[in-house]
């Protein structure tokens, strides 16, 4: 069985490895130059200094300027990162969907399932080996991407809990990839043709990923709230790397006056016509900025929860796929 | 007599239509049996049930006394060549022999290699690039290397040209004659199998129409020609299978249970093909008429 699996998929494995090597050849030089610039701008020290509570305003300003310069130079790479989150889906399409669908489409399931190995064992060995290979690849990919996006995420306020960068690094790529493959395998046992199975896999993967990302992830832990006054000396104290879910300006009685914004006025500042700062928005005295956020130190907890969800979904789909395999003739 | 394959009121349904229904038959050991019926009669379904690819929806099927669905151990005794002889097209014949060895506990690789060498099949060419006849031979060699006690072949010669058909059946007969393997092979054309089979199962419209040893069937059917027949009993006739009438004369194909002595009838022997055609004509159009909503 193991020999058969290797013989059937060795070409595919070769091309997958080739693709990964090409990707590495492209991304590693970029990553290296990105890291050089990062330390040349003195941003490495900035990161450790900003993590402390008592940072001098001057340091804060010079670091912000440095992050800004870095962002100008490499910010467009965030678009590359968007492309990279499609990789798990591709693995699902080309490794998962054909696993059963190809056999049935070519009729070879009638050959292999009528040899001396039962088809349950066939399914377990095949799913197991392909699953193990995929986990290995995804771990490598997750490690590599963690290294690659680190400067990019450190340069932004949002940090690594942010929408796209969170999906790229750490252990979640393992969950996504395993889920994509399992979804592909399952779709192949239901639709039994490669193209429909691939289409369903793509649609299902995008749907589930979007649903989890938008609906579930902000709620893995109760979000914290933070308030700070409108009037102040400098920019507000916002810890870097927090994932801000919603923010706005509220009146003292708690009603939301302006959503998705934040107001900063110098102390005792007045408008041109002498009005109190923000009164044209309907702000009453004592109005404050408010934000709902997930703190940056929950990164690994969230990674664990999200990976757990997708691994559990993958195992469920594989179980259903094994059951369905027993009914295909 | 040892029964290799027994089906009792066996049925399989796809959605609401029965692909096979109330199928009861016995296949004695050592026979070369032909499973004949038009396309869509349920031949593949019956074979898939026998090899355990399908689970029966009604009744039972037993192969060597075991229920084949989900029975991995029982698979060792069954060789199966599916329709269109599916094989991994990018594998070479030599690799497929290795695959068989990995997937089967009992495996005679030397037998497979000898056969393929004798047939002149290149060992290092992907089987997808072989001719249809060669590919069928590879599939047969793989099935025989399992040293099965029952060999099931689903339309093995349907896609072959007449010469390849002949060669395929000859090489099949050559190898099973020595081992005493029971063979069940299906075709929509009796002519393909008539020369090699000694047992016959006729399927039509998802039901068994006729089953029995070829010699018994030929001995047990006669054609009667005589004056126009009104449906009354005739001595020695068990059943009228098919009747055609002109104004004065009737031609009947009958199943006999004794000699027909009535001098009004001229009795003729019939060929196996006549018998099969008579049974296939019977009943094949009834459902169609009702489905189209027209009078029969």
Describe this structure in words.
Chain A is α+β, with helices and mostly antiparallel strands and 329 residues long. Chain A has eleven helices and four strands. In chain A, helix 1 packs parallel to helix 7 and helix 9 packs across helix 10. The longest helix of chain A is centred in the N-terminal third of the chain and has 39 residues. Chain A is elongated, with a radius of gyration of 25 Å. Chain A starts with a helix and ends with a helix. Chain B is 31% helix and 30% strand. The longest helix of chain B is centred in the middle third of the chain and has 18 residues. Chain B contains ten helices and 13 strands. With 296 residues, chain B is α/β, with parallel strands linked by helices. In chain B, the strands form three sheets. Chain B has a six-stranded mixed β-sheet with strand order 5-6-7-3-8-9, with helices on both faces. A four-stranded antiparallel β-sheet of chain B has the order 11-12-10-13. Chain B has a three-stranded antiparallel β-sheet with strand order 2-1-4, with helices on one face. The chains are: A alpha+beta (329), B alpha/beta (296). At the A-B interface, helix 1 and helix 6 of A face helix 3 of B.
Strand content of chain A: 5-15%
Number of helices of chain A: 11
Q: End-to-end span of chain A in angstroms? A: 20 Å
For the largest interface, the chains and their residue counts are: A-B, 22 and 32 residues
Write out the strand line-up for the largest beta sheet of chain B, numbering strands in chain order: 5-6-7-3-8-9
Rg for CA atoms of chain A: 25 Å
Structural class of chain A: alpha+beta
- Let me know the largest β-sheet of chain A: 4 strands, antiparallel
Mean pLDDT of chain A: 88
Rounded to the nearest angstrom, the distance between the terminal CA atoms of chain B is 43 Å
Helicity of chain B, in percent? 25-40%
Average pLDDT level of chain B: 89
Structural class of chain B: alpha/beta
Order of helices and strands of chain B: EEEHEHEHHHEHEHEEHEEEEHH
Rg of chain B: 21 Å
Beta-strand fraction estimate of chain B: 25-35%
The count of helical stretches of chain B stands at 10
Rough outline of chain A = elongated
Task: Provide the spatial order of strands within the biggest beta sheet of chain A.
Answer: 1-4-2-3
């Amino acid at each position: 069985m193991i020999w058969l699996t290797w013989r059937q998929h060795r070409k595919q494995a070769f091309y997958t490895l080739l693709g990964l090597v090409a990707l590495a050849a492209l991304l590693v030089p970029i990553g290296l130059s990105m890291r050089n610039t990062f330390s040349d701008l003195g941003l490495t020290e900035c990161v450790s200094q900003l993590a402390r509570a008592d940072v001098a305003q001057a340091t804060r300003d010079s670091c912000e300027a440095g992050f800004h310069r870095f962002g100008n130079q490499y910010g467009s790479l965030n678009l590359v990162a968007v492309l990279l989150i499609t990789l798990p889906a591709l693995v699902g399409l080309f490794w998962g969907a054909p696993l059963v669908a190809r056999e049935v489409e070519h009729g070879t399931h009638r050959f292999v399932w009528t040899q001396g190995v039962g088809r349950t064992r066939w399914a377990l060995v095949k799913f197991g080996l392909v699953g193990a290979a995929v986990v290995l690849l995804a771990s490598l990919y997750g490690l590599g991407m963690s290294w690659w996006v680190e400067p990019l995420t450190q340069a932004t306020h949002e940090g690594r809990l942010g929408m796209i960068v969170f999906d790229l690094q750490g252990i979640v790529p393992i969950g996504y990839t395993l889920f994509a493959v399992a979804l592909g395998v399952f779709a192949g046992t239901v639709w039994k043709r490669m193209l429909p199975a691939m289409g369903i896999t793509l649609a299902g993967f995008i749907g589930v990923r979007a649903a989890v990302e938008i609906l579930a992830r902000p709620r893995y832990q109760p979000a914290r709230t933070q308030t700070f006054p409108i009037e102040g000396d400098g920019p507000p104290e916002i810890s870097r790397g927090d994932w801000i879910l919603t923010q706005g300006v509220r009146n003292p009685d708690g009603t939301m006056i302006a959503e998705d914004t934040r107001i900063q006025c110098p102390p005792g500042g007045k408008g041109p016509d002498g009005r109190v700062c923000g009164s044209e928005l309907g702000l009453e005295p004592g109005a404050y900025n408010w934000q709902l956020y997930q703190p940056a130190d929950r990164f690994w907890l969230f990674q664990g929860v999200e990976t757990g969800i997708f691994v559990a979904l993958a195992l469920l789909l594989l179980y259903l796929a094994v059951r369905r395999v027993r009914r295909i003739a | 007599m040892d029964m290799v394959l027994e089906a009792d009121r066996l049925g399989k349904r796809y959605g609401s239509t029965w692909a096979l229904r109330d199928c009861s038959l016995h296949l004695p050991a050592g026979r070369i049996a032909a499973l004949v019926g038009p396309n869509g009669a349920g031949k593949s379904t019956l074979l898939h049930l026998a090899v355990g690819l399908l689970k029966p929806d009604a009744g039972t099927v037993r192969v060597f006394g075991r229920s084949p669905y989900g029975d991995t151990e029982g698979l060792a005794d069954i060789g199966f060549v599916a329709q269109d002889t599916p094989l991994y097209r990018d594998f070479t014949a030599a690799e497929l022999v290795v695959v068989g060895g990995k997937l089967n506990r009992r495996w005679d690789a030397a037998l497979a290699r000898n056969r393929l060498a004798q047939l002149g099949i290149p060992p290092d060419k992907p089987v997808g690039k072989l001719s249809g006849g060669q590919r069928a031979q590879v599939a047969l060699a793989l099935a025989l290397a399992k040293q099965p006690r029952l060999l099931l072949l689903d339309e093995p010669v349907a896609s072959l040209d007449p010469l390849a058909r002949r060669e395929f059946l000859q090489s099949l007969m050559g190898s099973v004659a020595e081992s005493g393997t029971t063979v069940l092979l299906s075709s929509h054309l009796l002519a393909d199998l008539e020369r090699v089979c000694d047992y016959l199962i006729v399927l039509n419209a998802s039901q068994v129409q006729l089953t029995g040893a070829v010699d018994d069937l030929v001995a047990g059917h006669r054609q009667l020609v005589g004056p126009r027949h009104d449906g009354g009993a005739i001595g020695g006739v068990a059943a009228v299978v098919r009747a055609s009438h002109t104004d004065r004369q009737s031609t009947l194909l009958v199943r006999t249970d004794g000699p027909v002595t009535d001098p009004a009838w001229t009795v003729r022997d019939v060929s196996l093909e006549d018998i099969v055609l008579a049974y296939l004509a019977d009943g094949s159009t009834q459902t169609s008429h009702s489905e189209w909503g027209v009078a029969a």
